[in-house]
Design a protein that fits this description.
359 residues; alpha/beta; Rossmann fold; six-stranded parallel sheet
Length: 359
């Protein structure tokens, strides 16, 4: 049997399908399972042991992109897939799945393209208080695979040992010692509706550094977040003593390296974006900053014993939202989240982690 799973676009969306990859392997242990993904998130599944093949396709667009997708569909048809699971169900992925010619094609019953699937699954338009893993698993329910619990089927990203060695070398070069308490802070997000203000990050980091002498904070970013990271670093330096500045670090990491960094970290703090979901594939304590999104939809999908705190502003009638227009105009779901709120969540997560380690 040959199975093709498709999930294009964002990092977090791909992370949320990793329990389903395991579910497909358990249900079809002898199958050849391929996974189609775009370059941005390819590292998430590149080393997944449940996959036989990872197909990385560049982002599409325009006439050339359409023609490339048609050629890809013909190639897939020649490989005679028996089952396609389209976790994305977007215009591009639905076309590719249809062109594959697989006799069973499972996707969401989206207006205008639901006809491309042989098995259609209802996807309500309203924002539901339900985890994204469960929403995507609805497609597997449709072929008789029951939804698992996060303890036995967490999200996962297999560690790349070369990346781990590179991270260890970089940390040592920055003066991070084995006994140091390393806090990783990701300071931006691809979606502007999920970005906590830089000055709030700076106040938080200054307070984190002030509390413990063995604590180090590393501000992480990707290539698209460097300006935000530089601004946070500059504002933090203005708030801390000269003695504390040596414990404030900053670096860019690939996704593989970020995954490896989580195994070394004592705590991760960041918004509801790809790096947080990479962190959630590990056991690192996490503080997630949730603005327009709900923790119940995108909090770490893993065993509840691993500390995870949600920092959010309750009681806003405009939350959650579709993240297209801020109705109040002031992004209050994030601007009203104070550094002290996040600091308290961070200390709770660290205390829970210490309690686990003492048993």
């Amino acid at each position: 049997m040959r199975i093709l799973a498709i999930r294009l676009r964002e990092i977090g969306d791909v992370v949320f399908t990793t329990p389903a990859i395991r579910g497909l392997r358990q249900r079809f242990p002898g199958a050849h399972i391929s996974y189609m993904v775009e370059p941005l998130a390819a590292a998430v599944v590149a080393h997944n042991p449940a996959l036989d093949e990872v197909i990385v396709v560049p982002r599409g667009g325009g006439l050339r992109g359409f023609l490339n997708d048609v050629a890809l569909g013909r190639k897939l048809r020649a490989q005679r897939y028996d089952l396609v699971i389209d976790f994305h169900s977007g215009p591009r992925s639905s076309l590719i799945g249809w062109l594959s010619g697989a006799p069973t094609r499972v996707g969401y019953d989206v207006r205008g393209r639901g006809w491309m699937y042989t098995t259609r699954v209802t996807r309500p338009k309203a924002i539901r208080a339900r985890h994204a893993v469960e929403n995507q698993w609805d497609l597997l329910n449709a072929i008789g695979i029951p939804t698992p619990d996060p303890t036995h089927s967490p999200t996962e990203m297999t560690l790349d040992h070369d990346a781990a060695a590179a991270v260890e070398a970089r940390l040592a070069a920055m003066g991070v010692r084995p006994g140091d308490e390393l806090i990783v802070v990701h300071v931006s997000a691809g979606n502007p509706f999920r970005r906590w203000p830089p000055d709030a990050f700076a106040v938080l980091i200054a307070k984190l550094l002030h509390r413990r002498g063995q604590r180090r904070v590393i501000v992480v970013s990707g290539s698209a977040d460097r300006d935000a990271a530089a601004r946070v670093m500059g504002e933090t330096i203005d708030r801390i003593d000269m003695a504390d500045r040596g414990r404030l670090l900053s670096a860019d990491f690939t996704l593989d390296e970020l995954r490896a960094l989580m195994d070394r970290a004592a705590l991760y703090i960041g918004g509801d974006s790809g790096p947080l979901h990479i962190a959630s594939t590990t056991t690192v304590p996490i503080v997630g900053l949730y603005g327009p999104t709900l923790p119940v939809r995108s909090q770490p999908w893993r065993a509840p014993q691993w500390p995870s705190e949600a920092a959010e502003v309750d009681g806003l009638p405009c939350r959650p939202c579709n993240q297209r227009v801020c109705e109040p105009g002031d992004f209050r779901c994030l601007t009203r989240l104070t550094p002290d709120d996040v600091l308290q969540a961070a200390e709770r997560a660290l205390q829970r982690a210490a309690s686990i380690g003492s048993h």
